[in-house]
Amino acid sequence: MSFGRSVALAALACVLGPLAGAQAPLVERQSRVEAAFMRNFARYVTWPSRAFADGTMPWNVCTVDENHFDASLEQTFQGRLEQGRPFTVRRAVSPEALASCHIVFVGAISSSARRAALAQLSGLPVLTVGNAPEFLSEGGVVRLLPGEHIEMSINLDQARRASLGIPAKLLEVSSEVVEHGSLRRLR
User: Fold this and answer.
1) pLDDT tens column, 60-111
2) Cα separation of 129 and 134, whole Å?
């Protein structure tokens, strides 16, 4: 098993392990897994130095949809450090304020509002994450498609426009990758 797959499986086991016996509702489990993915993106994705004012600036994790996550979003990031930086969580951020975020979850909002948020972030060093089937074609970077398991797909073209480095480890565990305008199904 590759390093990337083992990392992804370990992350999912940590999140889902305690939930297996608790029979948490499906939506709650999905939001916990999505939050864990976002935390791990801070570990593996590379941001340009211009994304942070200084070496102590926190990771700003933002959501456009205030209702998608339960308390698991804050719980996932509370007291955590990644690359020496703490996390802050901001919910229901207006499109104008998104530029100060590093990771943005664009949830179940209308397609026009989703496209407007993504347009606002175009070219900025912000990792956009969403779960709409058309998220990658609309300009998002990472799509986490819910189902029996969360399926991750990555738009490398958009990541490059945002000056974000996506490591091979993440591509190995992705179901689809968009590169040079073409969608490749990997699994």
Assistant:
1) 999 987 777 778 889 999 999 999 999 999 987 787 888 899 999 998 788 8
2) 12
**For residue 29, what pLDDT is reported?**
76
- Based on the structure, what is the number of domains in the chain? 1
Instruction: Say which CATH number the domain at 21 has.
Output: 3.40.50.2300
User: Positive or negative, the Cα torsion across 146, 164, 39, 71?
Assistant: negative
Q: What are phi and psi of 145, to 5 degrees?
A: -90, 115
Tokens of residue 56, six digits: 């102590």
- CB neighbour list of residue 144: distance below 8 Å, 6 or more residues apart: 33, 34, 37, 129, 130, 131, 150, 151, 152
Chain length of the chain: 187
Contact of 92 with 120, CB cutoff 8 Å? no
- C-alpha to C-alpha distance for 101 and 163, rounded to whole angstroms: 14
SS (H, E, C) 109-120: CCHHHHHHHHHH
Q: Which of 112, 116, 114, 119 is nearest to 130 (CA)?
A: 114
Q: Name the residue range of residue 111's domain.
A: 3-185
How confident is the prediction for the chain on average, in pLDDT? 83
